[in-house]
Amino acid sequence: MRRLFPLVAAVILLDTSFYAAITPLLPEYADDLELSKTAAGVLSASYAAGTLIAALPSGWLAARIGFRSAMLVGLGLVGASSFAFAFAQSVVVLDAARFAEGVGGACAWTGGLGWLMATAPTERRGEMIGSALAAAIVGILLGPVIGGVATVIGPEPVFSAVGVVSIALGAWVFSNPGAPARRVPRAREVARAIVSAPVMGAFWLVVLPSVFSGTFDVLVPLRMDELGATGVAVGVAFFAAAGIEAGLSPMIGRLSDRRGRAAPIRAGLAASALAAIVLPLPATAFLVALVLVVAVLAMSLIWTPAMALLSDEAEGAGLDLGFAAALVSFAWAGGQVLGGSGFSGVADASSDALAYAVVAALFVLTLAAFSAPALRRALRRPAPEPAPAARPPSGS
To answer: In this predicted model, what pLDDT tens digit does every residue of 65-78 receive, in sequence order?
Structure first.
């Protein structure tokens, strides 16, 4: 575990830093390429779209070829897409590069997170997921800084460097022994587990904050730009918000391991609804940034325990941990696509306030759904006992 976690954390950090680097670049691309809010949202959400499409296949891939090999496939795609993004001159190429990076990110996340969950003690799963999420957030911290540097010196040297780092990380992954082979579940088994009520409930709790994140990842930079903020100032705002979230995520994970998943999720749903209502109101870039910090703090109360809950319920339903990790990626990506392209489209057609109001209503409705007895029992339940290891098929 001591050798594995730094490796997985480094791969996750690289992927999320490239993902988040678009934030301060988005106003510049919107101006240079004359993008509407909808087109800017598509560019931002292309990464998540790639992750969404590749998430479940990456679970099958990890079960088929192993966690380490899945990570190597992911790093290869991240490296190639970073070089393409560096030299892209059109929005079509930019979208395609972001999409390819999302596919690579799905493989890297599924391989890394599945490998980590297979190695960590079950009673520490929330803590491990929180720590991995903290590494992802550090990447999100660095991403706007990388994007801010790219606004000054250009994207070519910055994103080429990301490609070089991905090659170095691939060599590090290759030097580590892989986890033992696991049974590849049948499609019917996977489908039955995914549509079970506990898994779907936990899945939604990962989707919803991702919708909110995808929405403000587009609307906040554009709003701050309208209010006179520079690309560097936008990067600083997201850096501050993500830095606080990175510090809190492991602690929230430990709390959910010891006390159950319900309390932080419930508090996060209420706080996120309030933040969504307030976010379009400030008339200065500084106040927008301040409310952004509050919104990210609110979401951090949901994300870590919800991801741990989803992995708990997926494993309890008989899914391999590779597929459990893939479900986390799938839920996150689905929310990002819906928020980044769908809700930015709502803002484009009407107003930012309406888009945020719909998100706030979803938080309120989800909080009200906690009255459902089955969901209450699932959320109060601590992390499950480890399931028996699946046997490989005969003859393997």
So the answer is: 888 899 999 999 99
